[in-house]
Design brief:
Elements: H1 10-33, H2 36-43, H3 47-53, H4 57-84, H5 94-108, H6 112-123, H7 128-149, H8 153-172, H9 180-186
Length: 192
């Protein structure tokens, strides 16, 4: 007897759709301002079905945040791989790899939903479950950056700090603000 082909259950096939919808909905309105019904409408399914997949709003938010950090890791990995294949004197140095990873991250968060979800997650970190998910995501990203770049700890810290500065610049539009203060904050920061 030949094995039956495996197919995803309806729930398994809907999870990625629900997570993508949750990322968009939470990015728009934040954790507090988004309901399960909002996510359901975004996914074009009932709120009851979203609850079946994720029994609480916090679990849904954490799952969306974990997916966001997976996408960040994939982008950083692709940036590091691109640096490894690049030519040029500095391309394969720790600084060159960090630069390539930074470019890959900047391109990723040009999708403001991923950037805003991270910002909203930090704002909702009063919830222990969300705070733990943020710490876990930042730990994974920091470990990946350190491992793939081989950069000294201080350079990895600076890389993460500049990422947070990018979040501030983009979310409040500092790159288009007038004045020396805006020039100081945005100097040397690249983002699409």
């Amino acid at each position: 007897m030949s094995p039956r082909p495996s197919t995803l259950s309806t729930a398994d096939s809907r999870r990625p759709v629900v997570l993508a919808s949750a990322i968009r909905a939470f990015a728009r309105s934040g954790y507090v301002g988004t309901t399960i019904a909002d996510v359901g409408r975004e996914a074009d399914i009932s709120a009851a079905y979203v609850f079946k997949l994720y029994p609480s709003k916090e679990r849904l938010f954490v799952a969306a945040l974990e997916r966001c950090y997976e996408l960040v890791e994939e982008a950083l990995e692709a940036g590091a791989a691109g640096a490894a294949g690049a030519s040029g004197v500095d391309a394969q140095t720790p600084a060159g790899i960090l630069y390539a990873m930074g470019g890959a991250y900047a391109a990723l968060v040009a999708d403001r939903d991923l950037l805003m979800l991270q910002v909203h997650a930090q704002a909702a970190a009063g919830s222990p479950g969300i705070a733990a998910a943020v710490r876990s995501g930042v730990a994974r990203v920091t470990t990946l950056v350190k491992t793939r770049s081989g950069a000294p700890d201080a350079d990895v810290q600076r890389f993460i700090a500049f990422g947070q500065l990018c979040h501030l610049i983009v979310t409040v539009g500092i790159e288009s603000a007038d004045g020396p203060w805006a020039e100081i904050i945005a100097a040397g920061i690249r983002h699409p």
